[in-house]
Automatic annotation (TrEMBL):
Its main location: membrane. One of its GO terms (cellular component) is membrane. It comes from Gimesia panareensis. This is ABC-2 family transporter protein. It comes from the Bacteria. It is a multi-pass membrane protein. GO terms for molecular function: ABC-type transporter activity. Residues 42-256 form the ABC-2 type transporter transmembrane domain. Keywords: Membrane, Transmembrane, Transmembrane helix. InterPro entries: ABC2_TM. The chain crosses the membrane at residues 21-43, 63-84, 117-139, 145-170, 177-199, 238-258, 314-332, 352-370, 433-451, 463-486, 492-510, 522-543, 549-568. It is found in: Membrane.
Length: 584
């Protein structure tokens, strides 16, 4: 790998960028802010001198568990994003075919593109080691647990990156690549858990199959007493998981190498040329094709009536349907649903399944929105649109209409699940209406956010990373807030200042993402208000509120939508950074 020219170039050039420094330093700073917030939540305002060793150990154990699962989820998400996005960008720009024409071997090309795109992920893993060692000093965490946690994250990056590279070299469009990568990973984890449930505890294959789920392996490392119920000495080990994931990653990598030149160049590169019956004829062959009538808005016509997002999109939709059905079935038939267990004190298992499906729908819709713009930029077709008579309003509304149409299944499935849960008595009518309207508001926000990021960033990789990263951290932050609020429910007022630190940092990050190129007062106000209002909505929800939560969500996410949509329509030149005034 270290002799690979693609990896060497990335290793020499990436650290020189200020973005690389900000990512790794920001990650460590965010972890320390999380430690501070959790510490204030558990210890409160009591003096250090009065804090017992057991309380410090409880603090260290809780923070380490949160950081471990958060880091595993983080590296999986960004491994998919960076690995698949980097290769898809090469395809959109037409530079992958140039790499295929070089003297690079197939394995060098696959390995170089995959590992070079994951350099920042490896750096983040290395940066987390000193933080975990610091938690070891608090107690409640063993060095062996830290070692196995880092190894699980590392091998997960390898396996996930191999899967993302396979999909990226296979599919042609960026949206298909990202969607299949995410859905495939989630479906794979679901199948693994299903097989583990079918295999008995005495099965010899069970540890190796279960090892394919890194979350299960990490849970066993963090909770060694769950497996060691006897009186023998407790030990932690994740060898089955490391071996299983390594074999899976190698198999995916080898398969990609063998199929690289079968999949690439794709058939869309070649232009079909009609041939005459007699090869020696020099006369031009005229082929008449029936023309199709185009709508008044050609942008929305192209989005709906053509294969703008690639062929075989139905495969993505089929996988989404199967995954949604599996999650709903698992939640409704689980023991927790039968026993009436409420997660965080307010969320039933069916509601948790709906939240997962809704989050997946939001991410896929956001992906489709941002790639609808980045694909135009990479293929140089956006420049052609700028010299036509299409107005800014027609372009933006055409894109939005096409995105909503192509995302109709992503909107309809969660709505149908909500209706089913209401019929089963899992939600009240008021809760159903609030959840429905809130989901639709978040869907509009995710789509407009993707469109805004695509127009704002020149680099497609930065646009996709900024858009999906905003969605990821926004909802992960909501989950962390809910966990910490439950921990601090008895003394919430005393720990308010620690939550404010977390909120202010999140507001600053959101402000930086939304106003990257074109700062505006409306976007600034929206970015700073959204985390505060979201925090208020979370607290109201945990206290049993419904209508107040809905009103807060509508205002918190409706204001950014207007702040991003109005400039895109009325000030298209400013939003895009180009000019169309010379068209008269």
């Amino acid at each position: 790998m270290f002799n690979n020219p693609i990896f060497i170039r990335e290793a020499l050039t990436s650290p020189r960028q200020i973005r690389h420094y900000l990512i790794r330093s920001g990650y460590v700073a965010a972890v320390f802010i999380l430690i501070f917030t959790a510490g204030q939540t558990i210890l409160g305002t009591q003096q250090i001198q009065t804090t017992t060793i057991g309380e410090f150990a409880r603090l260290g154990n809780l923070i380490f568990q949160m950081i471990s699962f958060l880091q595993l989820l983080l590296v999986m998400f960004f491994t998919l994003l960076f690995s698949a996005g980097s290769i898809a960008q090469e395809k959109d720009r037409g530079t992958l075919i140039l790499l295929l024409m070089t003297e690079l071997k197939d394995r060098e090309l696959v390995s170089g593109k995959t590992q070079s795109s994951l350099l920042i992920v490896y750096v983040l893993l290395a940066a987390s080691v000193p933080v975990c060692i610091f938690l070891h000093l608090l107690g409640g965490v063993e060095l062996a647990q830290i070692l196995w946690m880092e190894l699980i994250c590392l091998i997960t990056v390898f396996a996930t990156g191999s899967w993302a590279a396979l999909v990226a070299f296979w599919r042609e469009k960026t949206f298909q690549t990202l969607a299949i990568s995410v859905l495939g990973m989630v479906v794979f984890l679901g199948v693994v858990e299903l097989l583990v449930g079918l295999l008995g505890p005495s099965s010899a294959l069970r540890p190796w199959i279960a090892g394919l789920d890194p979350f299960r392996a990490l849970y066993e490392i963090l909770n060694p007493l769950s497996l060691n119920t006897g009186l023998e000495p407790i030990s932690v080990s994740a060898w089955p998981s490391l071996i299983s994931l390594a074999v899976l990653g190698v198999a995916l990598r080898v398969f990609t190498v063998f199929r690289l030149r079968v999949w690439n160049p794709s058939r869309s590169v070649y232009k079909a040329t009609p041939k005459a019956e007699n090869e020696t004829e020099k006369e031009a062959v005229i082929v008449k094709e029936k023309s199709r009538s185009i709508w008044a808005n050609p942008v929305i016509w192209r989005e709906i009536m053509t294969k703008a997002y690639g062929r075989k999109v139905f495969v993505i939709k089929l996988a989404y349907f199967l995954l949604a059905g599996f999650l709903l079935w698992s939640a409704t038939s689980s023991d927790a649903a039968v026993e009436g267990v409420l997660y965080l004190g307010v969320i039933p298992p069916q509601g948790l399944a709906f939240a997962g499906i809704a989050w997946l729908s939001l991410v896929l819709a956001n992906t489709q929105a941002v790639t609808s713009i980045t694909s135009e930029k990479d293929s140089k077709t956006l420049e052609l649109l700028l010299v036509t008579d299409i107005s800014a309003k027609e372009f933006v509304l055409g894109k939005l209409g096409g995105i909503f149409y192509n995302s109709k299944e992503l909107i309809l499935v969660p709505v149908l699940i909500l209706c089913y849960l209401v019929s089963q008595g899992a939600f009240s009518t008021e809760g159903f209406l609030c959840a429905l309207i809130g989901f639709l508001a978040l869907m509009i926000f995710s789509i407009v956010l993707g469109l805004h990021m695509g127009l704002t960033y020149d680099n497609s990789r930065s646009a996709i990373g900024g858009s999906l990263g905003t969605m990821f951290f926004l909802f992960i932050g909501i989950g962390i807030f809910m966990i910490l609020l439950v921990q601090a429910r008895s003394s919430f007022a005393l720990q308010l200042q620690s939550f404010l630190v977390f909120i202010v940092v999140g507001s600053a990050a959101l402000h930086s993402a939304l106003t990257h190129r074109n700062p505006s007062r409306a976007l600034a106000i929206s970015a700073w208000l959204l985390p505060f209002l979201t925090f208020y909505a979370i607290t109201s929800f945990l206290l049993g509120g419904t209508l107040g939560v809905l009103v807060t969500i509508l205002f918190a996410y409706g204001l950014p939508v207007l702040s991003m949509y109005i400039p895109a329509v009325s000030e298209f030149d400013v939003a895009l950074g180009k000019t169309t005034y010379d068209k008269g």
